[in-house]
Write a structure and sequence with these properties.
single chain, two-stranded antiparallel ribbon, 11 strands, about 20% strand, disordered N terminus, AsnC-type_HTH_dom, DNA-binding, AsnC family transcriptional regulator
Amino acid sequence: MDLSAADPDTVLDLLDRRLVCALQVDGRAGTGRIAEVLGVSTRTVTRRLTRLQQSGLLRVVRMPDVEDAAVGALLLRVRVLRGKVDTIARALADRSDVPFVDVMLGGQEVGAVVLSDACSRDRLLYGQLPATAAVTETTAHAVLHAYADAGQWRAGYLDEAEAAALAPPSVPRPAAGETPLDALDRALLARLGEDARQSHAALAAAVGAPESTVRRRLDRLAEGGLLRTHTTIDPPLLGMAVDANLWLDVPPGRLAEVGTALAGHPQVHGVFATSGPANLMATVFCADHGGLYRFVTGTLGPLGITRAETVIVGRAVKRAGVVLNAAGPANAASRRGRRAAAS
């Protein structure tokens, strides 16, 4: 599905936003279940979601890996020569082991998340990036602990009862590697990585297996924590025009307390303890620059953070493995949001 296909002037009304939030809670929730919880007809839910998906505004995909895989991942900050940012951003986005890529405001820094083995990581850090004349500096932060990631973020248009009613059953998280995968499992996960809302029948036809087998396999994968989803939509369409990365210095004795507190904040869509000069990184959505100021002063201020570097995302290039078109709705909406924030 091409995320550049949508009308850039599309505006999501309250029901659309509530539908997006329902899919943030459970990306594979059925239309009937969503309709019952939100108090609308199944036909309305089906029509609205079809429009959002076919227009390219909304895409639901399986998260690239289980949450535990974030530990050991790299958060890259790549400084580039002016005018070369798109080349570097696209090269990183083309990698299957890089699920997130952003261009920072100012056009001279690219941020990326790298999930790879040591060999691929070292080849990227010590060979490919240094050999690229456009790259002037690379900083790599290893994730030591994940308090929250993008798959857990909720935009806040559902109340607690609605979210609880939509939430899939909670299962104990297994140890890494505890759920062995065969060829059929991997084929199903690959299909869900493209579209997590495919029906059992569609998946069965795609992988050439009986529908009953597909149902059993998906139940097993869900129990293994492997069916977490990410709802990809441009934040300005949900009333959040500013996306920022906050690199924070926190006293070591308060790191867990602060990380946990930020993970529960509705504007925060990622919190990680990291190596490097800053020991905590948080990503946050705000309605405008004034909202970001209020978050920094009102939310971060009382937490005892000793230093905060605020880096605003200028353009999202890839989210949860989905490459966004530079001319598409995400960036058109972001440009409108930035103009609104500056006005």
